[in-house]
Amino acid sequence: MRVGNEEEAARGPRQGNAEWLAGARIVGVLGLFYRPEGRMGEPEAVAFLLDDGQSVLLTCSSDGSLHVGAGTWPRLPDWCVPAAQWEYAAMARLPQPPDGGWTVLRTEERRDERGEVDEAVIRCEGGRFVVTGGDTVGIRFTRGHRGAAATT
């Protein structure tokens, strides 16, 4: 499954339908934090690491909408200036991936009244990730099917 390349990442968020991760295997999820602010709050972006070495980066724009684009893992995105003050880090409240990663069954984008994406849902075997836009990126993982289980 091809998300995009670095040239596409430099152009901005990918365009097209919401099935941007269907069939992929997620082997890690990392937050991208601005270090002077610490890791107490939400990350500025979330990177989904895929088993083929690619990554997908979800970020917020100044209007709070959520953008999905090709990531640059393990390198920081160009907008992380100065780079020494940014870092990828695990998020304590997200589970570790199962052996072999999570297989993505489907993805959904939810839009606001302006038609901008404000939430992405990544449905996997065993649960789902919900990523929301705003001042920062919010993320949660819900175990089970159709959100029947508790959020971690």
Gyration radius from CA atoms, angstroms = 14 Å
Q: Please report the number of helical segments.
A: 1
Tell me the number of structural domains.
Answer: 1
How widely separated are the two ends? Answer: 28 Å
Sum up the overall morphology in one term: globular
Q: Outline the biggest β-sheet.
A: 9 strands, antiparallel
Tell me the total number of β-strands: 9
Binned, the helix content reads under 10%
The percentage of residues in β strands lies in 35-45%
Helix and strand content put the structural class at mainly beta
- Average per-residue pLDDT, rounded, comes to 82
Map the helices and strands.
Layout: H1 6-11, E1 25-34, E2 45-50, E3 55-60, E4 66-70, E5 86-89, E6 102-111, E7 117-124, E8 127-132, E9 138-143
Antiparallel strand pairs: 1-2, 1-5, 1-6, 2-3, 3-4, 6-7, 7-8, 8-9
Architecture overview:
It is a single chain. The chain has 152 residues and is mainly beta. A hairpin with a 5-residue loop joins strand 6 (102-111) and strand 7. Strands 1, 2, 3, 4, 5, 6, 7, 8 and 9 form a nine-stranded antiparallel β-sheet that branches. The two termini are 28 Å apart. It is built from one helix and nine strands, in the order H-E-E-E-E-E-E-E-E-E. The chain has one domain (6-143).
